[in-house]
Design a protein that fits this description.
The protein is α/β, with parallel strands linked by helices and 399 residues long. The protein contains 14 helices and 14 strands. The chain folds into two domains: 251 residues, Type I PLP-dependent aspartate aminotransferase-like (Major domain) (Aspartate Aminotransferase, domain 2, 3-Layer(aba) Sandwich); 144 residues, Aspartate Aminotransferase, domain 1 (Alpha-Beta Complex), CATH 3.90.1150. Strands 1-9-8-5 form a four-stranded mixed β-sheet, with helices on both faces. A three-stranded parallel β-sheet has the order 3-2-4, with helices on both faces. Strands 10-11-14 form a three-stranded antiparallel β-sheet. Helix 4 crosses helix 8 and helix 10 runs parallel beside helix 14. The chain starts with 8 loop residues before the first helix and ends with a helix.
Amino acid sequence: MPGFEVFGEEEKQQIQDVLDTGVLFRYEFGEQRKGVYKVKEFEEAFAQYTGSPHAQAVTSGTAALKVALTALGVGGGDEVITQGFTFVATWEAIFDVGAIPVFTEVDTTLNMDPADLEKKITSKTKAIIPVHMLGAPARIEEIKAIADKHGIPIVEDTAQAPGARINGKHVGSFGACGTFSFDSVKTITTGEGGMVITNDPQLWRNMSEYHDHGHDHAVNPGGRGGEGRSFIGFNFRMMELQGAMGLAQLAKLDDIVASQQANKAVLKKAAAAIPGVSFREILDEKGDSATFLAFMLENKERAAAVNEILRENGAGAINFAENTWHFYPQWEHLLAGSTPCNNGWPFAEGGKRRVIYDPKALPKSAELMSRTLVYQVPVKLSDEQRDRMVSALQKAAQM
């Protein structure tokens, strides 16, 4: 991770195909484009790769979440449950459709704790967003069983886990929708961009129309058709250059995952020698996308001491308990209810607070994250980088 490590002639040729037509817009200009429809081709290839009937390309992983939630009918006054360890985009999208994010604990998968999910469901819960965080699956089958029992749709946030599988089934394909991100540091990248997959043809059509200002796509599902509109929409269209990049990158995804698995195994073997270490629970090792290696120490103090040794030896790890982008207690703008809106939206409505978040609301997650260290696993691990990281881990094992 990320996909820019393997940029090559394939990406250049796909982009050149677009430049040769002069058409960057994903729709229309049929005569000029001479049959080149890169975004549509990318959607079809991604759907086939993930084993889903339908895929809708959009401008970002964040947009993918908003398009999926909107297509599912989630809106003002609703609640959407997600986990307290995720990128801020997950809950930003929930707020942006007018709903209120509700956060669960994470367990040793570093993803949604199904037991805590069950406690958080109310009559206002209209969707559940488990996140396959850091490239490894959540307990999606358990989560889906709970959701199905309550009749609540699941949107899988798979932004960091394309290529990951559980018993051969792609993550993102278990729920009503699966969303993906292709930003500049993702496993495959189009610079910016995202995708939503679904088995439901009506849901796909709703997403297709909503992401294109509500234009009627009935005549040509997945492409523009009539000039009527069933509902309002917005502009989340992917452009042809992104689709071209996506096609080249998708063709490399399985090789990327295989490389990451091999590199992760080297680092994990070295980390295993650290006294008292344990590793993140991976539900299916063969299906691990291996974008990150996460390991736990006995307590916060021990983790800090180990990481100090790693830093001194040029191979410091990430402690997400200290990270301001990905962990609930560090989201100061969420906890403070900070917003540029003069009326206080989305935290307030009609002069009254809609929601207030307690920084200590997820104690199990806080304890777990405080003693967890993480390495991002590169696709291309140079001998120098490998030796430096392995040597640092070996020194940490001797402390």
